[in-house]
Amino acid sequence: MQRLPGAAVCAADDTPAGAETFFASLFAAGGLTLSQAANIMGLESHVIQNWVARGFLTPPVKKRYSRDQLSRLLLINTLRPVLPLDAICRLIGYVNGVLDDSDDDTVEDSALYMYLVRVMHGQSAAEATEDYVEPFPGAGERLRRVLEIMLTAARAGQYKAQAEKMISALPETI
């Protein structure tokens, strides 16, 4: 069992198909509460509330987070070990405009997250986004560019975590 990008919980299958199944099961009964979203990501609830207050994503509707909102949270959580929040916001904003207004998005956050899962499993950005329909000329190229940056940052975060684990396993010196 592997963790999905940005998640603290394990999915039975961390492939793109497994991620889709995981999401479908989470939202079968509707949205997620703040505590459920926080548990999935391994964060304190106040961190998510702060991100909402700072405009990094739209507020929950009737205290429920949607699939797109959880996807945005997972994207941020995937990238934050190596990128500052303002850089992450700039990156997401490059494809989706104003972060707390989903009306100007060129790709749903849930699709963006699934595209990232695909590239993290070896697909090229072009292969991962072959089903993407551009709302305007050049949107696909923006999306692919963002995915390449996200992949680089996600891999850097994995290497950083691996290096920290290796360092902690070193014996104490005298």
Mind explaining what this structure looks like?
With 174 residues, the protein is mainly α. The protein is 57% helix and 2% strand. It has a two-stranded antiparallel ribbon with strand order 1-2. A hairpin with a 6-residue loop joins strand 1 and strand 2. The model has no long low-confidence stretch (mean pLDDT 91).
Describe the secondary structure blueprint for this structure.
Elements: E1 2-3, E2 10-11, H1 16-26, H2 34-41, H3 45-53, H4 67-79, H5 85-96, H6 109-120, H7 125-128, H8 139-168
Antiparallel strand pairs: 1-2
Helix pairs in contact: 2-3, 4-6, 5-8, 6-8
Oligomer: single chain
Shape: globular
Q: Helical stretch count?
A: 8
Find the structural class using helix and strand composition.
Answer: mainly alpha
What's the quick description here?
The chain has helices spanning 16-26, 34-41, 45-53, 67-79, 85-96, 109-120, 125-128, 139-168, and strands at residues 2-3, 10-11. It is mainly alpha-helical and 174 residues long. It is globular, with a radius of gyration of 16 Å.
